[in-house]
Each structure stands twice: as structure tokens, then as C-alpha cells.
Write a structure and sequence with these properties.
Kelch_1, four-stranded antiparallel beta sheet, Neuraminidase, 25 strands, 7 helices
Length: about 400
């Protein structure tokens, strides 16, 4: 079996990253990794004279299935493709998603960034190894070529939504199979909605239906069951809004309540998952949105809400107690946007990431800038990586699994 991750194109990590990995190993980055390496060698030796897979259920024979699984949980998921090619036991554990489910239950998460700068094409970026990967090309569909797309990452899936003439099409990319397939439609299909995900669940709210009606409805998606559940309606209908997950609640910010770009909403709404109720928060999105109608650029790190103000090139932090925004400092200078479009502002683990780049005649660059917020100090951005691109960032999502 060919390992699906090895099918992705990538560049080798720099010497700096190699040194970081060596330092991580020296610090005892998982003693289990050493156990795994030794056990794999012993397992290979013990099975070298046999063609039977009868012991594959124990994974690494010398240490048994439970310890094998404990080791695998702590391996980087960039290694899972290679591990899946060892035998049927490894392959089943990884390709069925069971290992990712166990990682989630153990609180082990790696965040990769997925984004599209070209129609039907997606790239992935591993921030730890600083490695680019190219996903298989999306199946050709006119709705993804001729109209805006919505995207979100949930569990081990990347969902992309496109609007056709008569309906909304959903495509689903799975990291388990490295392939695209038809996704499950929402109970009320929509576009231009706000969304957020946490673990295997994602929340969507607002947007417009196929007739252009602005919605107040909301739904929750379970990626393990691949089902949508209708939630109570928001207090206000809104489109072109943004969503975040914070303090075990789903927040929807900004948007427009009509088809006029001048009718901007400055309030937010909070959905309490335990009580199943919405609460309006006046002025929660005040000052976050320009006249162009682009959704607010917001992200949550360590249960703190941040916003990128593209017009002023500022980063702001939300004060939950006073319901106000405080300016922390500047955004990276080089990423360009068109009134808020073409730039991504996302949380990636404990980092805020700005994805965009300078535009020049005939092309430009896509740059990834990262900052780890500490207290309320000003941002200190590090450019993680860059690549040539003829286009802006159309869609972006961060998958944590």
C-alpha cells in the first residue's frame, strides 16, 4: 500500500527545523518515541522470517497493542502515512480514524493550515516541520469555478461549500484517504455563513439560502457521524458574518441583516451549547468591519478573542469583562488585501497566523506570519515561510487533530 502522505508533494525541512527537532528529542520529547523506534526494529527483526500478518493486531509485537497505541498517539501525524504501510493493524488504526479519535481523547492535537489560492487547488502547511503539501485537485464543478466558496475544517475533514444555480454543493476532503468525495448537505443549505469548529464538531449560523433569503438558523455538524443537527435560531438574521469557538460556546460576530452593504451589524451572539440558548452581545463587533462587507477577521487563542483590522493594520484583543476592544499593535506590513478580502487571520494552536502577501505585477507571494500572544504585549511577528502565488488567499481553514 502506498502511503497517502508520501503522495503529497513537499519540501525538506530547513537545517533550522532539523535543529529544533533535535533539541526537542534531547529534551525528552516523548520517551515513547524512543520506545517506538526500538520496538519497531525488534518487531521487524522478529517478523523478518515470516510472511504472516497474524500478529499485526498487536501492532508492535514486543510491547503489545496498548503500549503501541500509546506510542503512536505521540508521533507526529506527518509520520502516520509511513506507519500505515507497515501492516494491516497499523493501517486499520490510522485509516479508520481510530488513532485520531484516541489523540483527541488524550488531548493531543497538531494543527495544520489548509488554504486555496487557485480554483480547485488546495495546499496544506505543517507549521512544526515547516513543510508544504499539495492536496489532490478538487473534482471539477462549475460552482467552485464561478462563485465564492466557503470552507471549514472539522475532525479529520476539510469541507468546501459552493453555490450552483439550483443548489449548494459540498465537497469533503479526508486526510485518512487523501481524497475528495461528496459531503453531507446541511439541513438548510446555505452560503456566506459564519462557522467555527472544535474537535469533531463544527457550528454554522446565518448566511443566505438559494433564494437569497438571509438566515437566522444554525446547525451543528458531527464529523464522526457525518450528520447535521438543527440548532435554535439566532436572535437576528445575518450574512457575511464570522464565527469563533471560545469558552465552550459558539459566537457569531458582525455580518449584515439585509442585502445592503451599508447595513452592518455591530452586535454578536453567543450560543450556549449546554442550555441551547442564544444571547445578544451589543457592540461585540463594533469597529471590526469595513464598508466593503468582508466578514470580520477574528480568531481565538487560549480562549482569548483577537481581531485583525485590515484598514488600520492593527491587532486588537477583546476584553470580555468590559465588552471592548483594545489595540495591541500592528499586523505584518507585507500582506495585502482588497478591503479585507484575500488575507487570512487564523488561530493555529497557541499562535495567531496571518496568511497573505505582497502583490506585484504578474504575481506575488503568499507569506505565513505567526505570533504567540503573551499577556497583552505587542505582536512580534515571525515569518514562518513563503511561496510564490499569482493570487490572493481565497479560502483558509486550520485543522487540529
Amino acid at each position: 500500500m502506498t502511503c497517502h502522505l508520501l503522495e503529497l508533494t513537499s519540501k525538506k525541512p530547513s537545517s533550522k527545523i532539523k535543529r529544533q527537532k533535535e533539541e526537542r528529542d534531547e529534551d525528552g520529547f516523548d520517551e515513547e518515541n524512543l520506545t517506538l523506534t526500538l520496538a519497531l526494529k525488534r518487531s521487524k527483526i522478529s517478523s523478518s522470517g515470516s510472511n504472516s500478518n497474524s500478529n499485526s493486531s498487536s501492532l508492535i509485537n514486543p510491547i503489545g497493542r496498548d503500549l503501541s497505541t500509546s506510542c503512536l498517539l505521540r508521533c507526529s501525524r506527518s509520520d502516520y502515512g509511513s506507519l500505515a504501510s507497515l501492516n494491516s493493524g497499523f493501517r486499520s488504526l490510522i485509516r479508520t480514524g481510530e488513532l485520531y479519535r484516541l489523540r483527541r481523547l488524550s488531548g493531543i492535537v497538531e494543527h495544520w493550515i489548509y488554504f486555496s489560492c487557485n480554483v480547485l487547488e488546495w495546499d496544506a502547511y505543517d507549521p512544526f516541520l515547516r513543510r508544504w503539501m499539495t492536496l489532490p485537485r478538487m473534482p471539477h464543478n462549475e460552482c467552485f469555478v464561478c462563485s465564492d466558496k466557503e470552507s471549514l475544517a472539522v475532525g479529520t475533514e476539510l469541507l468546501v461549500f459552493g453555490k450552483e444555480i439550483f443548489n449548494i454543493v459540498v465537497l469533503r476532503y479526508s486526510i485518512l484517504t487523501n481524497s475528495w468525495s461528496a459531503g453531507v448537505e446541511m439541513n438548510l443549505p446555505r452560503c456566506l455563513f459564519g462557522s467555527a469548529s472544535f474537535g469533531e464538531k463544527a457550528f454554522v449560523a446565518g448566511g443566505t439560502d438559494m433564494q437569497g433569503n438571509i438566515l437566522s438558523s444554525a446547525e451543528m455538524y458531527n464529523s464522526e457521524a457525518q450528520t447535521w443537527v438543527t440548532l435554535p435560531n439566532m436572535t437576528k438574521p445575518r450574512r457575511m458574518c464570522s464565527g469563533v469557538y471560545m469558552d465552550n460556546k459558539f459566537y457569531v460576530l458582525g455580518g449584515m441583516s439585509s442585502n445592503s452593504n451599508n447595513d452592518l451589524l455591530t452586535c454578536g451572539e453567543e450560543y450556549d451549547i449546554e442550555t441551547g440558548t442564544w444571547r445578544v452581545i451589543d457592540d461585540m463587533a463594533a469597529g471590526l468591519k469595513g464598508a466593503s462587507g468582508a466578514p470580520p477577521l477574528v480568531a481565538v487563542v487560549n480562549n482569548q478573542l483577537y481581531a485583525a483590522i485590515y484598514g488600520d493594520k492593527e491587532v486588537r484583543k477583546y476584553n470580555k469583562e468590559s465588552n471592548t476592544w483594545v489595540t495591541l499593535g500592528r499586523l505584518p506590513e507585507r500582506p495585502d488585501s482588497v478591503n479585507g478580502w484575500g488575507i487570512a487571520f487564523r488561530a493555529c494552536g497557541d499562535r495567531l497566523v496571518v496568511i497573505g502577501g505582497p502583490r506585484v505585477l504578474g504575481g506575488g507571494m503568499i507569506e505565513l506570519h505567526a505570533w504567540v500572544p503573551r499577556d497583552d504585549g505587542p505582536p512580534v511577528w515571525e515569518m514562518m515561510d513563503s511561496k510564490h502565488s499569482a493570487n490572493f488567499v481565497y479560502n483558509c481553514a486550520v485543522m487540529g487533530c
